[in-house]
Amino acid sequence: DNGYEIDVCQEIAYQYNLRAGTFMEEEAFQQMFEENQFRRCMNAAARLLGSRAHSKSELRKKLYSRGFRQPTLKTTLDECARLGLINDQAFAEQYAHELADRGLGSYRMVKTLVDKGVDRQLAENVAEQLNGEEHEKDRAKRLLNKKWSTLARRE
Question: Burial level of 91, CB count in 10 A (0-12/13-18/19+)?
Answer without folding.
Answer: buried
